[in-house]
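Posting this for the archive.
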Amino acid sequence: MFDEDDDKEPFLLVLGVLAAVIAIVCWWFLAGRADDGTASVAAVPTTEAHGDDDGGAAELTPSAVAIAYAGQSVTLSGVVPDAATKEAMAAAAAEGFDGEVIDELTIDNSTTTEGGTVTITGSASSPDEAEGMVARFAGLATGAGYGVTDNILTEEPADVMPSEVTIDYSTDEVTLTGVVPSRDVADAMVATVSDNFDGEVIDELEVDDAITAIGTVTILGTIDPLAHSSFVTAVGEVAEGAGYAVDDQLEDAEEASLEIELDALFELEPIEFDSGSANIRATSRSTLESAAEIILANPGGTIEVQGHTDNEGDAGFNQQLSQQRADAVVNFLIGEGVDAGTISAVGYGQDQPIDTNDTPEGRQNNRRIKFEVTAQ
């Protein structure tokens, strides 16, 4: 038989061990509790934009930014991780860009620039322009860990036809035809021609702002040699100022020169006759002698000497008087050596007035001798 105290010793030993185990388990359990009272669990990697339910750190998602050029604006869209990146992107867009910057970027702190993408789209008129569009963002983007995708299209330059203008010069009128890049260019050309030509100026120029002013102004027609240089010089100053080359194809006309010189002579010194007769006054003989010299110095034309009167008196008498006066001038010039085969006389009476017959001054202007020169 065992002593009663000896029987109790194993039992107490078991209780002690059990108590120790329970104490260790409780310590382990209490030490493993999180501050919020939940158990700590190792986090699982994720691309969610927030932490997991057990409080573990979430994996950051790469940021994606789109930069779209459209004419005079650039739009920034997508997601960035912080305000500093957003502000830096907007500043880069505005640098060296005259258009509007539209910032539609949003901030999400669960994203990161590392491994992100910046995609640039739009169109450029040249490779240099496209390079500049990308360069605004390349340094910032790559420095922050972004990859840059350049999707900018370079437009092929359109075939633009140069402006071509023709100025057709004739005795009575000048016509401007062709296409110019602006109304200002057209008006400047028309004004210059009008300032250097006494006849009618016909403006048939068309405006097309899609063309350039790098073309040619071609001047055609026949012009008096005395007016040739000044006309071309005046037109050339305006044309070349707008970027045009000038092609002078004007031909000098001897007969036109002869008529202009004779008109200029008689404008200064009109031929005068005795009242109601075809007798040339002595004061006009020197004028006709000068006219003969001009005609002899400019051979090759056929001259019609025209007599005109006012409407005073009988029309039949005026017709006869105008013919007699024209004959008198022709006879005088033949006597000065002008070839009779190149000159003729025609009386038009009162039928072709150049001024009113209601005033003394107008009637005096209508009583005149006119030289019409034509080619042989």
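The radius of gyration is 51 Å. Residues 4-31 form the longest helix (28 residues).
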